[in-house]
Design goal:
This protein is of the alpha/beta class. 36% of the residues lie in helices and 18% in strands.
């Protein structure tokens, strides 16, 4: 009972300060989508770690665009992007071509009802890089905390997927990447197990595919994160893999330190 009350209290504090006041200069449409009370309470509590208004504004997302999100998982960003693009634009949820992955997307989009009207599911075969997203059709491709999974899959998977991202974007289009940051001095072997990636690794993947780095932001940085935990990044919230062990310590750290990189497909 106490935990539920505490969560509700935290959410009330989050909502007490008008979102627009905390995001001066941001696109009002993004601010409204993030402030939408249809978003689940648990997801809204993550805003202080994931900074959706600032992140989407940095990537240049706006109504009227075709935005592809790779591997949306449980739909944390879908709750924001699908309604944002509902009346003007198009949200495309992209995942693996397996029946299980595609069934997950179908369920995710159906769960949004009319608020997700117009959103579509798309597939990519990570073994070949083939996708049913039309070449040159996307204004923005986004991937949040997913590149490390591509690296887990082997040396060829991530390059294939980045090449597919490049192909589906319009000339001048944007690839936005957010992922858990491994300090450059650490052993690269940790990228295969910890969930953290070096910035240089993402840079190599993107530039090899043809992208150019346009800008980077520290909006999702967390200097409290030492990136050296027994169960990798999943030691921190929201997963808290260690359970009650050192729980207060990990909650005080918060979610991981993340790089936020904006790449463009040259015109």
């Amino acid at each position: 009972m106490f935990r539920l009350t505490l969560a509700a209290f935290a959410l009330s504090l989050l909502c007490a300060t008008p979102l627009a006041a905390r995001t001066t200069g941001a696109d009002p449409a993004i601010v409204a989508a993030v402030a939408d009370t249809h978003r689940t309470a648990a997801n809204r509590l993550r805003d202080k770690y994931r900074h959706p208004v600032e992140t989407l504004s940095f990537f240049g997302v706006k109504p009227g665009q075709t935005v592809v999100e790779y591997s949306p998982g449980g739909g944390w960003y879908t709750e924001i992007l699908a309604p944002l693009l509902h009346h003007k634009g198009r949200y495309v949820a992209l995942a693996g071509a397996t029946p299980k992955a595609q069934a997950g997307l179908t369920k995710l989009l159906a769960g949004g009802g009319t608020r997700y009207a117009g959103a579509t599911a798309a597939s990519i075969d990570t073994a070949t890089g083939k996708s049913n997203v039309a070449p040159g059709s996307a204004d923005v491709v986004l991937t949040f905390r997913n590149v490390h999974n591509l690296v887990f899959d082997g040396p060829d998977t991530a390059p294939r997927v980045f090449a597919a991202f490049f192909k589906m974007l319009k000339p001048g289009g944007t690839l936005g990447v957010v992922d858990h940051r491994l300090p450059e001095r650490r052993d690269s072997k940790l990228e295969k197990s910890s969930g953290y990636l070096k910035r240089s690794t993402v840079m190599k993947l993107a530039t090899a595919a043809g992208f150019r780095l346009a800008a980077e932001s520290q909006v999702n940085a967390n200097p409290k994160d030492s990136a050296d935990y027994p169960n990798g990044v999943w030691t921190l919230p929201p997963t808290l893999e260690e359970g009650d062990k050192d729980r207060a310590r990990y909650l005080a750290i918060g979610e991981s330190d993340r790089m936020t990189l904006k790449f463009v497909k040259p015109r």
